[in-house]
Structure formats: structure tokens, C-alpha cells
């Protein structure tokens, strides 16, 4: 699935098993939103079906995503990507609580900056608990998991979340792993260059083989530079 974050003209996007829910985690300013939007574009292009892209409007306007240079800005594919602006976790819960009522299930739902939608103070007051934010994330992830699992009984639907972490480890990894087995992490590899790694935390298969994609953000373009196995780095 690591190929799905890049332009299909630069890398072959293979039709392999895809986990219904995936997490992309990386430091600030590493191009996460660009990777998510390229993923949304690829899903819409391959399936010719709608994709829902959920994000905070002001954050998106302040960090507009970059796509591969070969993508035509006037492509009809962009009309298949539905932008849905949300302010907090309550709006995420409302959306997925009614997911089964949709006449047509999107082929993918992408949520940018998922972790930042949970305000610490608001969650603490809501649950009267100092760990209210963690409780809110657990309940929301459980709702998302159930909604996507139910939707996949009718037609294929993927959910991709992103979160920001500082340091080398994914923020609240122990919570995410309960609901998400496929996790991608981004690490810097020099000025403007990054490494995207994927790991599978499925209990049935344990840690899967790690693959690495190298990319860069240059002149407002998302530039794919190649994929290797971990032992080659």
C-alpha cells in the first residue's frame, strides 16, 4: 500500500490486501497532508468513485497540499474528492455514527490531523477525567472501526487517519494499535527529504516486512524518489 501515497505515473500501485484502517504519523512540516491528498486522488482515480477528505478548514488553508507535477490540476478526478471541514472530534463521531445511513459509501475516507481534533481541556471536562482526551480517542476510534467494518460488508471502503508526533515514536501508539494494524511513519532524511516506513501490527501476522519510500517536497511538488526494503537502508 505504500505506493498509494505517490503518483501512479511514477510508481506502480499494486492491487494487494489493504487494511481497512491505516494511520500515517509524522513530524510537523513533513508533507503528511500532501501524502494524504495524493492517496485520496489515487483512490478516486482507480475506483472512479467518491472519496471524502475531512480536515480543519483553517489548517488546510495555511498548509495547502502539494501533488506530483504530472497531475493535471483540471483533472475530473478532483470532482470526486469531497471536502468535509470539521472542527473537533464530536463532528467526526457524528459523521461515522450515521455512516451506515449513506446511500452511497465512499471508496475511502481520509481524516487529516485526527489527533489534533481532540482538545485536551474540552475532553477532560466532558468526561470529568484527567485522561479525558485518551477516552475520547478510544471511543471515536471504536466508532470509526465499527463503521468501516460494517461498510466493507457492502462495498470496499478504506479509512486513512493522520497524526503529528514529535521525536521518534507515534503519539499514543498504544491506543492506535488497538484499532489500527497498519501504521506508516515519516522521518526526516535531510533538508526537504523524508522516509516513509510502513509496519503491520496485526496480531495474526506479527510485525510484517518494513518497506521504505523516499520522497521530497521541492518547488511545491511532491517528488517520489524510490522504494526499498528496510535492510537496504
Structural account:
- The protein has about 230 residues and is α/β, with parallel strands linked by helices.
- The protein has a single domain, classed as Rossmann fold.
- About 30% of the residues lie in helices and about 25% in strands.
- It has a 9-stranded mixed beta sheet, sandwiched between helices.
- Strand 8 and strand 9 form a beta hairpin.
- Helix 3 packs parallel to helix 5 and helix 4 packs across helix 5.
CATH topology: Rossmann fold
**What separation lies between the terminal Cα atoms?**
19 Å
Structural class: alpha/beta
**Adjacency order of strands in the biggest sheet:** 3-2-4-5-1-6-7-8-9
> Helix share of residues?
25-40%
Q: So, CATH architecture?
A: 3-Layer(aba) Sandwich
User: Which value, in Å, is the CA radius of gyration?
Assistant: 17 Å
Strand content: 25-35%
SSE string, helix = H, strand = E? Answer: EHEHEHEHHEHEEEE
CATH class reads Alpha Beta
Number of self-contained structural domains = 1
How can the largest sheet be summarized? 9 strands, mixed
Q: Indicate the overall shape.
A: globular
Q: What is the number of beta strands? A: 9
Q: Which blocks of ≥5 consecutive residues have pLDDT under 50?
A: none
CATH H level, superfamily name: P-loop containing nucleotide triphosphate hydrolases
InterPro entries: P-loop_NTPase (IPR027417)
GO molecular function: single-stranded DNA binding
Organism: Citrus clementina (Clementine)
Protein name: ATPase AAA-type core domain-containing protein
